[in-house]
Amino acid sequence: MAKSTIIGFPRIGAYRELKFATERYWREEISAEGLKQVGVEQRAAHRAMQKDAGIESLISGDFSFYDQVLDMSALLGAIPVRYGWGGGMVCFQTYFAIARGEQRGGVDVPAAEMTKWFDTNYHYIVPEFEKGQKFKVSCEKLFREYREAADAGVETRPVLIGPVSYLLLGKDHENGTPLDHLDSLLEAYAEVLRRLEEEGAQWVQLDEPFLVTDLDDRAKAAYVKAYAALRAASSLKLFVTTPFGELGDNLDMVVALPIDALHIDAVRGANQVEAVLAALPETMILALGVVNGRNVWRNNLEASLQLLERAAMKIGNNRLWVTSSCSLLHVPYNVSSEKNIPSSLRKWLAFAYQKMEEITTLTRGLNEGRDAIAPALVASSQAMESRKVAQALHEPAVHERMVEQPLISAGRASPFAKRREVQQKALELPLFPTTTIGSFPQTAEVRKKRAAVHTGSITQESYDHFVKEQIASCIKFQESVGLDVLVHGEFERNDMVEFFASKLKGFAFTEHGWVQSYGTRVVKPPLIYGDVLRPAPMTVELSHYAQSLTPKPVKGMLTGPLTITQWSFVRDDQPRHETAHQIALALQDEVLELEAAGLKVIQIDEPAFREGMPLRRSAWGAYFAWAVQAFRLVSSGVRDETQIHTHMCYSDFNNIIASIKDLDADVLSIETSRSQMELLDAFATFHYPNQIGPGVYDIHSPRVPPEEEIVTLIDKACEKLEPWQVWINPDCGLKTRDWPETRLSLSRMVVAAKALRGKYGGL
Q: Would residue 332 count as lying in a domain?
């Protein structure tokens, strides 16, 4: 009989319970034991949801208080020396110091590097390895959570990041490569498996997403060696998952591994199913990920069942598991929590709970026959058909404009070298100009006022007056500190994507559709269900107001088309590049109106630019061909003297530097403080011609940087770039920080900039 399972589940809480508890712990309002108890309660709730939805094979160990990769580093004792770990069990203080940095009691240590999890908007803490790296079991969390479920009468499959993927996610600080540490790592993994076996586990899940990427011969050999060692170390049954794409040229190597079950992504890797079925050994179970774990649209049960039936004919029901394409971490909890979504749209949606029901339904149809799920098949087909013919999805004027302004038409009128001369005369900025990325602290008062206008407790007029007061205060503060290019602070914006989506036609919104981005940072992605149109200006009034308060330039702040697309749940009934094209045209109208309103600097944020890049090199060209043009289309038509900025964070730029240049932004700001400016190496090697603002302090940490640290970082930047190219700014927006930190950090940043001007002023 086929079996239903999932390979990962959300963990922030259906109503963000874990987020709020963790933040209370950080504020010392609850103890470590209090936070752990919230974890116990959430895991129990998650098991209950899975059982209620009919999932047969449950998992454990996928829960995390911050990040699953950091959990693996704690489990394996891979703790960088700078965190002062004494070598015993890893405690919360060490764990969260790695995640957030620590600055108290004479300790001053920055957070570890963070970057994107493959092509998702989830961020992970990068493992760090040193010469002679030793690994040992140093955390009981995995074993404790298995026992916790067992004590509740639930047999689970513990989840680990596979050994090769864990190493490839990391970085080596001793001029070696992460795979140099494979032998030592495998000894620790063997101990983990033995411990799980002693606890009574029968299966273990090993997530290996790197198997859907381009692997060199050494990495493939590492997989062969690793799984031979794991097989020899334990009699646990090994289940390997491969989310986010196709196995491709790794298929032959993968099916030869000594594993008991293999998961494949049958959504993003739909074309691989027949090849996998043909190559699968007779002893291996296949977990077909037919339900999309990355998007919120309802499954086409008929199409999925047909695929499962073909697989069953080939290998038999008893060797099939029905599951999701990837962990359900990337979708919200439950559509049933949403009361304000129109019923016409609601029937097209499936969140984590509904996706588990779809998995259960498909499993039942496979085991008991189509008649057993006939009503569900009919309902699914009706929902698919109603979506195809819904008039609300289509705006003829949008498609006419796409024909008139194709992506290929995008670009600035003059090259950067000419624009730079014009902009310098217009803006009169000093060497090492200082600015921020956009947002300022979203205080409790700001959030309270936003909630009040949303519920009708205060009038829109009263709220607008409050926002303008906040803007005026923010402008005054920036002038007093001495920043060179100011921002209005974004007090009216709840989220950099949702704010714009709320003003564009074609988007819908949830109340509780929260998804984890990193740690306690959660986002509520909008749903793009139809053609995108801008009915009216979105930011012009407040940006013009802010500029009227100061003679210094104020940046108009927009979120770019790639990021709005990537950080939304995107319609799946048309190519993604068409949706981005529509958004770019809407934003182009906004840019031109900002310029007409007197804004001389406009920032078009694209933190998701690299995130949207396909995992396989063979698909990069097609992506960059439209992604670059979508960005350029937004600023097409602006005058040379209008300075266009963009911002990107947590990106490895080595493979995309040529495309970054093709964006042709006058100033690019990036996150570099956690990597100590290492990310600039790609720009130096490439001889990047435009200006760059390498972030000089980490805004995800409460730590305030010393002035000399900022000077040192910019000195490092100037070893890789010309001083005239360098701007000085924080890593990212400041909305999650508080005002005391912000005042002190920016004051130190400006003092450091003045010192640097004195040092480099003759260059």
A: yes
Amino acid symbol at 696: V
Same domain, 260 and 326: yes
Q: Quote the strand ranges of 299-358, DSSP E.
A: 320-324
286 and 332 housed in the same domain? yes
Name 718's Cβ contacts closer than 8 Å, sequence gap at least 6. Answer: 726, 760
3-state secondary structure of 695: strand
* Residue-wise pLDDT tens digits, 249-304: 999 999 999 999 999 999 999 999 999 999 999 999 999 999 999 999 999 999 99
Spell out the alpha helix ranges (H) of 485-552.
Answer: 498-501, 540-548
Give the domain-ending residue among 389, 419, 449.
389
Percent of the chain with pLDDT over 70: 99
Q: What is each CA distance from 554 to 134, 490, 589, 731, in whole angstroms?
A: 51, 12, 19, 19
* C-beta of residue 190 within 8 angstroms of C-beta of residue 238: no
Judge if 383 and 414 occupy the same domain.
Answer: no
Domain final position from 367, 389, 411? 389
For residue 168, give both structure tokens. Answer: 């490839």
Q: Is residue 609 part of a domain?
A: yes
**Of 685, 490, 687, which Cα lies nearest the Cα of 605?**
490
Query: How are beta strands 521-523 and 515-518 bridged, if at all?
Result: antiparallel
**Active-site annotation holder among 123, 263, 544, 700:** 700
Residues sharing a CB contact under 8 Å with residue 609, sequence separation 6 or more, in sequence order: 560, 562, 563, 627, 631, 648, 651, 656, 660, 663
**Same domain for 493 and 377:** no
Tens digits of residue pLDDT in 476-508: 999 999 999 999 999 999 889 999 999 999 999
How many angstroms separate the CA atoms of 70 and 98, rounded? 8
Cα 111 from chain centroid?
Answer: 18
What's the sign of the alpha-carbon dihedral 363, 367, 368, 371? Answer: positive
Residue with tokens 């390895």: 129
- 661: domain CATH number is 3.20.20.210
| Helix locations, 405-439, DSSP H | 416-427
**Can you say whether the dihedral through the CA atoms of 739, 484, 632, 692 is positive or negative?**
negative
Residue 80 lies in a domain: no
46 given a catalytic annotation:
no
Residue 465 to residue 259: CA distance in whole angstroms:
63
Angstrom distance (rounded) from CA 355 to CA 258: 30
**Residue pLDDT, tens place only, 39-98:** 999 999 999 999 999 999 999 999 999 999 999 999 999 999 999 998 999 999 999 999
CA 601, distance to chain mean position in Å, is: 27
Note down the domain range covering 544: 396-441+481-760
pTM for the full model?
A: 0.91
| Pair type for strands 58-60 and 102-104 | unpaired
Mean pLDDT (whole number) for 698-715 = 87
- Residues listed for the chain: 763
Say whether pLDDT at 650 is over 60: no
With 90 as the cut, is the pLDDT of residue 654 above it?
no
Taking the C-alpha atoms of residue 744 and residue 746, their distance in angstroms, rounded to an integer, is 6
pLDDT at 763 over 50: no
Residue 607: which residues within 8 A CB-CB, separation 6 or more? 563, 647, 648, 649, 650, 651, 732
Partners of 321 in the β-ladder = 3, 287
Do 642 and 743 fall into the same domain?
yes
Flag whether 191 is in a domain. Answer: no
Residue 534 contacts residue 503 (beta carbons within 8 Å) = yes
Residues 435 and 350 in one domain: no
Q: How far is CA 200 from CA 139, 270, 373, 739, in A?
A: 18, 36, 35, 51
3-state SS record for 236-248: CEEEEECCCCCCH
Burial of 572 (0-12, 13-18, 19+ CB in 10 A): middle
